[in-house]
Design brief:
423 residues, alpha/beta, Rossmann fold, four-stranded parallel sheet, 8 strands, 51% helix
């Protein structure tokens, strides 16, 4: 007997059994840190999953609520001595929520529609975000902010607070065989963070790489997987595998931590797909984070005279185990004074679309970051994920300080001379 309504995508019994209830995960968990509740910890959520799996409790709205409050930051995995694959468990637990009578079912359907029909469709996404880029750089934005109307705008107001000043979009354009390093451009990243892609290319080329962005690639599928839409995540993974197989390139460099973590786990996502599993594993083996690729390579040191607070992106530090490399790259820059803030490796509350669907918890976590920024007064805040960048834009305003928020690639590129410096 099992209480899972969608058995084929249910959490694996062996995965659940790995948890020995030691509790080391509890103090690493952001939602436990805020609430102090066992049910809002990894151990508590796994206990609920076991109870549902064994048909001891029904999949109620309360159970669903505890799972959906999880950020899926995977900080628990980094400290777990038993190797519990918590991220995989939560994705599969959330996959049950559409098959069960769900809490807030209309909200889930709306999210799924947006992720499938807007985020995953490049032309639709471009059409939606073109006016957003215009607004972000127009005088109208200042007038709207001054009017106070954004305080009444709910999710739109929260999004505006997170929006920086996006530059031109960056979209895949090259055919196969045009370099030895393929750049993954993603979905929202290419539309709102085109400057990050351009900075990444300049820095990579100064390290000796020949970079190209192959056509045919698209959304990595992480947002869908985290929301429990594993069917859509697999579709997107297959499309990316086909695109990067055709493109060639020794390495696939990813400058978005969440995308990189998802792509490194394509083999796991497609483990039951006989046609794609080996191809998925082969692609995953080529995926490297931007900082991971640069580690140990010759780079111009550059100069950036600033107090810099590096904030770990969860899916870089916890899911990929990369935290020393970005700091080493920044530490090699002349004049860069690294400022370590308390909780630099704790989730900022962005977590993909989490800040939109769980604004209260997201706001609590952002406030913690803002308090640290207010105390340490960095000139520049650096991270390695677009969602984190957006959350820190809001945190800087909340802290009431003058600080710039940059991606690691932008900080290194600026130190090396930016666009004016030859690759």
């Amino acid at each position: 007997m099992t209480g899972w309504p969608l058995v084929e995508d249910a959490p694996d019994t062996a995965d659940l059994a790995k948890c020995v209830h030691c509790g080391l995960c509890v103090n690493a968990c952001p939602t436990y840190a805020i609430t102090g509740l066992e049910v809002e910890s990894p151990r508590g959520r796994i206990h609920l999953a076991r109870a549902v799996a064994e048909d001891r409790i029904p999949l109620t709205e309360a159970v669903q609520g505890h799972w959906e409050l999880c950020l899926q930051c995977r900080a628990c995995e980094a400290v777990c001595p038993s190797g519990v694959p918590y991220g995989r468990i939560m994705e599969r637990a959330r996959a049950q929520l559409d098959a069960a009578p769900p809490a807030k079912g209309w909200q889930r359907r709306l999210r799924r529609f947006a992720l499938r029909n807007v985020v995953a469709r490049p032309r639709v996404l471009a059409a939606m975000l073109t006016p957003v880029r215009w607004f972000a750089r127009s005088p109208l934005r200042g007038l709207v902010r001054a009017s106070g109307v954004l305080r009444l705008a709910g999710p739109l107001g929260r999004l505006e607070a997170q929006l920086g000043r996006p530059g031109r979009p960056f979209r895949p354009r090259e055919a196969a065989g045009e370099g030895n390093v393929a750049l993954f451009t993603g979905c929202v990243m290419g539309e709102l963070f085109g400057d990050v892609h351009r900075a990444s290319i300049r820095v990579l080329e100064r390290s000796g790489a020949n970079v190209f962005a192959p056509r045919g690639q698209g959304c990595c599928g992480a947002l869908s997987a985290h929301d429990g839409d594993l069917e859509q995540a697999r579709r997107l993974a297959r499309a990316n595998i086909a695109a990067f197989e055709e493109s060639g390139g020794e390495a696939i460099v990813v400058n978005s931590a969440g995308c990189g973590a998802a792509m490194k786990e394509y083999g796991e996502l497609l483990a039951e797909d006989a046609e794609f599993v080996e191809r998925a594993e082969a692609m995953a083996a080529r995926v490297v984070d931007f900082s991971e690729y640069l580690a140990g390579r010759d780079l111009p040191a550059g100069r950036l005279r600033a107090r810099v607070a590096y904030q770990d992106a969860c899916h870089l530090a916890h899911a990929q185990g990369i935290s020393a490399e970005p700091r080493a790259l920044l530490g090699a820059v002349e004049g860069c004074e690294l400022v370590e803030t308390e909780g630099a490796d704790m989730c900022c509350g962005a977590a993909g679309i989490y800040s939109l669907i769980q604004p209260a918890m997201s706001g609590e976590l952002r406030a913690r970051k803002a308090a640290q920024f207010r105390e340490h007064r960095p000139d520049v805040i650096v991270t390695a994920n677009p969602g984190c960048q957006m959350q820190y834009e809001a945190a800087v305003r909340e802290a009431g300080i003058e600080a710039r928020v940059l991606h690691l690639a932008e900080a290194l590129d600026e130190a090396q001379g930016g666009e004016s410096s030859p690759a």
